[in-house]
Amino acid sequence: MLETAPGGALTAVTDDTFAAVVLAADRPVVVDFWADWCPPCRAISRSLAELAVEFAGRMLFATIDTDANPDTTRAYGVLSLPTLLVFRRDEVVGSIVGARPKHHLRQSLARHLAG
């Protein structure tokens, strides 16, 4: 069963659920790689929750705790946090490393809706 963050906007995924939720999705998926000890991760998660509501139905927003899910973290070469990877089907089509303002995230993610 998938856990959904408060507000229902962000879907928590794990090593076990990643393929079914992210790689098999019928729309673009933003995956937020984060850790509890990462202050910028907390800041960006608020913006992502708001953007998830804005992009509802067009883009899925998922989060994955890198400490609890090392296999997926390693598989995608995530070395810095926060890292956002944008998937279209089973392919990474974009990335954002480090905390960014909400307007920057909105612009960057909106590009992945076209096409």
UniProtKB/TrEMBL annotation:
Q: Which InterPro entries match?
A: Thioredoxin (IPR005746), Thioredoxin-like_sf (IPR036249), Thioredoxin_CS (IPR017937), Thioredoxin_domain (IPR013766)
GO biological process terms, semicolon-separated: cell redox homeostasis
Q: Which UniProt keywords apply?
A: Disulfide bond, Electron transport, Redox-active center, Transport
Q: Where is the active site?
A: C38 (nucleophile), C41 (nucleophile)
Q: Name one GO cellular component term.
A: cytosol
Q: Where is this site: Contributes to redox potential value?
A: P39, P40
What is the protein's name according to its record?
Thioredoxin
Source species: Micromonospora citrea
